[in-house]
Amino acid sequence: VQLQASGGGLVQTGGSLRLSCTTSGNKFRIGAMDWHRQAPGKQRDLVASITSGGSTNFADSVKGRFTISRDNAKNTVHLQMNNLKPEDTAVYYCNARLLTSTGWNSYWGQGTQVTVSS
Backbone dihedral region of 42: left (phi > 0), alpha (psi from -120 to 50 degrees) or beta? Predict the structure, then answer.
């Protein structure tokens, strides 16, 4: 099972980016999917999450600017980031809880860099 993240890049303050993360491999079900981020020298923090039923949750710092969505047919989760700020600069990681032959486990993508210039 693998998670492949994409969509990071360099953008100016106020700009937008859309991150995507696709799961592949043998799995029976996909549970909650999240985006986390880690800035240099800081811990990895939860940015946004979405349950299998579509319920969402956001960190206070991104509420009103970021949205999270999922396409269950394509096993993909998206993070739409608008009105980006320099403090959003970080490596963004996706995470998914997947049911496989070994049970429910948590899987991480490889991370994608987001840089917001002032």
Answer: beta
